[in-house]
Structure formats: C-alpha cells, structure tokens
Amino acid sequence: MRTGLRLTPSAALGAALALALTPAFTAHARPSDPGVVNYAVLGKGSVSNIVGGPIGAERLFGAPFQAYSVDVPACNNWADIGLPEVYNDPDLASFNGATAQTAPNDETHFVKQAVGVFANADAATRAYHWVVDRGAGCDGQTATMRLDNGATQVWTFHGGTSGPADAAWVKQLAGADRRCFVQTRLRENVVLQAKVCQSGNGGPAVNVLAGAMQNTLGQ
C-alpha cells in the first residue's frame, strides 16, 4: 500500500500506534481452532497487494525460531517476531509463520508473519505479555543485533503504550532510510504478529496485514 506521503519517524510511529491500538474485538468472540494457522498467514500475492510492491520470494516456517542475539536484553522480543520465548508455551496448540520479500536477494520490502493458537486464553495472554512486559524497557533504546549469518545491524526502537491486547512499535536502521513496523495482537486464544520493513511509512501496510490475518481467525 502506497500512500504517497512521507512521514517523519515520530509521525509515522504515532499513526501506526493509533491504528494498532484501535479496539478491534467482536461482540461475541470465541476461541479459534488450531487449524486457523493454515489460513492466517497470507501468501505472497496478498502481501504484494498490501505493501504495494512486488513480492517474489517467500519462506514458510512451522516453528518459532530466533536467528540473532541483541546486546540490550529488553529489546530481544521487539527485535523480531515469531520467537521461541514468546510462543514456546506448553499450551501452544499450533503455530505458523512466513517471511516474504521483493526477490531472493532483494529486501526492498520485507514482511514477516507469525501466528500461534493456544489451548486457552490464559496461555495466549502469557505469550502476549512476554512481548509487552519485556519490551517495556526497549522504547528509545539503540541496540546491536548480531545475526546468525554473521551480519551486524544497529537499530533504534520506538514504541508507545501497549494496550491490553494490542502493541505496536517501530525500529529504525542506523544510517539508512529503513524502518520495520510491527504489530502484536492478542485475540482470545491467539497471538498474531506482523512486521513490514521498508523505506518510508509502513504503518498503514502492517495494520492492513495484521487485520487481514485477524479476519481469518473465525472468532
């Protein structure tokens, strides 16, 4: 999705948070079945439409993973999504995730999705709080990520007040016009996460992506 606008980092963050923290509950939500993870992760065609650019490569993953270390522990669960610390709960019933990007060697647009269905709402709430409680000390921090492939990246993190079921934050790559816009949503027994990385404002795109994922939950 291209808006034609170039927002400052603070304005983009404010817009992303305003979108993310808008209440989105249905009046009579019910728990999701484990099988919804097969539908909640959007394919590259849908992702391309949402980000407004070509998406030629995607990779699915069926288990949480972490492929980096970070020198500011509070930022660990803001640095990426689909992490073991968040999802690896004994009551995790099903999980699915995917990454998608412009081309195999081109991350002009990079999108990641993760969704976990838990046996009950209490377990999902625990997972959600692994994100918001640990990340509470990350806002305003600059942290170095050391990726398992040997690369090193420096990011500055900005986030607002997380709601009881919605959280959003942005990380800015040092020395580059590149930001990742991230949302985490708790919906009954589901925790879903979406991340859009690009130049300019990816806030509207990540909000549409997370909303589309949420619409598949059957709640």
List the helices and strands and how they pair.
Elements: H1 9-20, H2 37-40, H3 44-51, E1 57-61, E2 68-70, H4 76-79, H5 84-87, E3 92-103, E4 106-118, H6 121-132, E5 142-147, E6 152-159, E7 166-173, E8 179-187, E9 190-198, H7 203-214
Antiparallel strand pairs: 1-3, 2-5, 3-4, 4-9, 5-6, 6-7, 7-8, 8-9
Written overview of the protein:
Helices cover 26% and strands 33% of the residues. It has helices at 9-20, 37-40, 44-51, 76-79, 84-87, 121-132, 203-214; strands at 57-61, 68-70, 92-103, 106-118, 142-147, 152-159, 166-173, 179-187, 190-198. Strands 1-3-4-9-8-7-6-5-2 form a nine-stranded antiparallel β-sheet. The protein contains seven helices and nine strands. It starts with 8 loop residues before the first helix and ends in a 5-residue tail after the last helix. The longest helix is centred in the first third of the chain and has 12 residues, at 9-20. α1 runs parallel beside α7. It has one domain (9-214): 3-Layer(aba) Sandwich (Protein Transport Mog1p, Chain A), CATH 3.40.1000. A hairpin with a 4-residue loop joins β5 and β6. The chain is an alpha+beta fold and 219 residues long. The model is unreliable at 1-12 and 22-27 (pLDDT under 50). InterPro entries: PknH-like_Extracell, PknH-like_Extracell_sf. Residues 1-29 form the signal peptide. This is Putative secreted protein. It holds the Pfam family PknH_C. Keywords: Signal.
